[in-house]
Amino acid sequence: MRILTGVVFALTLFSNITVHAEATAAALNGRAELELPVLSIKLSNDGTGIIKKVTCGYCKFNFAKITAGTQVFVNGRKADVSQAAARAGKDVFITFDSKTAEVLTIRWNE
User: Rounded to two decimals, what is the model's pTM?
Assistant: First the structure.
């Protein structure tokens, strides 16, 4: 029982340290990284658009802007933003500027 209690304590401590490290790293340089379990994306004909339901502890917005500078990566390879639109409803990672709400990268693995 003591061993089990020790293991649970260690896992709890490790997860708290990991969350803190991610939050600290995300706050650096005004960039934030977020995993979206369900991508809610809207694109216009020119390739710009928004990703809805983007929130973080220190952000003051609920969506992020997709611009001409937004890069998309599938399995580590550069892809077109239209492929991100086809990914709607599935999980992705995004990196965005936490001050301007501009999406820098959208990425996932298949």
Answer: 0.72
Residue by residue, DSSP assigns the chain as -HHHHHHHHHHHHHHHHHHHHHHHHHHGGGEEEEEESS--EEE-TTS-EEEES---TT---SEEEEEEEEEEEETTEEE-HHHHHHTTTS-EEEEEETTT-EEEEEEE--
- Which tokens is 49 given? 């658009």
Mean pLDDT for the stretch of residues 66-81: 95
Each residue's pLDDT tens digit, 1-60: 555 455 445 545 444 433 333 443 455 578 888 899 999 999 999 999 999 988 777 777
Amino acid at 23: A
Altogether, the residues listed in the chain come to a count of 110
Beta bridge pairs of residue 52 = 63
Q: Give me the residue spans of the domains in the chain.
A: 31-108
72 vs 39: CA distance, rounded Å: 13
